[in-house]
Design goal:
Layout: H1 6-15, E1 20-24, H2 28-41, E2 45-50, H3 59-72, E3 77-84, H4 87-96, E4 100-103, H5 110-126, E5 131-135, E6 140-145, H6 158-168, E7 172-175, E8 181-183, H7 192-201, E9 206-208, H8 216-224, E10 227-232, H9 234-249
Parallel strand pairs: 1-2, 1-10, 2-3, 3-4, 4-5, 5-7, 6-8, 7-9, 9-10
Amino acid sequence: MALVDMRDMLHHAYENSYAVGAFDLVSLDFLEAVIDAAERCRAPVILSVAEPHFAHYDIELMMPAVEAAARRARVPVAIQLDHGSSLQSAVEAIRLGCNGVMLDASGQALPDNIKATREVVEMAHRCGIPVVGEVGYVAGQEGEGAELHPGETQLTIPSEARAFVERTAVDFLAVSIGTVQGRMKGRARLDFQRLKQLRKAVSVPLVIHGGSGLNEEQYRRLTALGVAKIDYFTALSDLAAEAMRARLKG
């Protein structure tokens, strides 16, 4: 199946009430593991490179391997920039081979978020690349305990989501309904009523960040309510660290 259009991939998921996992990569070991798991499950997958992780690896060296793995995979694969910070970040990601980009301007005021996201959408669409935008704030930091980043979660307001989608023409919308970035104590309490309202407010597939720690029932309810992509990293990071510790002890 190899590398496929991320727009087509996520619209198929949206129309058939399932979600594609987007897994952040931080090494070739992560890349091989994600592809192997997707092939074993015969499931489509998104290989995600998150800009906040670029301090830990050279993205220009990583991307040729990511693209090669995607092209030889036996399942549908897309490659996305996650948590891009600027127009230049999106341009560079597309140049390196990403066929989907996310601009994360959710920490800005809504008018500034709209302006920044629209600039990325206009550029990316000229290249045939879909864009994820975000409204609302998901607290925490990937790979860390959520309590270390106590910024209050800002749940997505449906009217703001509608205005954002209409004024930016984003292809997908990341929303905040109670998940956190990183690991958390206890189980996330998701606002499914809000998610129902968001699905009615916008006509694009929805995205959830902070997929680690959710249970099967929560995943099922998310996909039934328009979520087509779930981003996932912290649990993978924890398992990798646990495996390394076990190997060192052995």
